[in-house]
Amino acid sequence: MEWLLLLIAGILEVTWAVFMKMSEGFTKFGPSIITAIGYILSAVFLALALRKLPLGTAYAMWTGFGIIGTTILGGMLFKETITLPQVICVLLIVSGIAGLKLMS
Question: Model pTM greater than 0.85?
Answer without folding.
Answer: yes
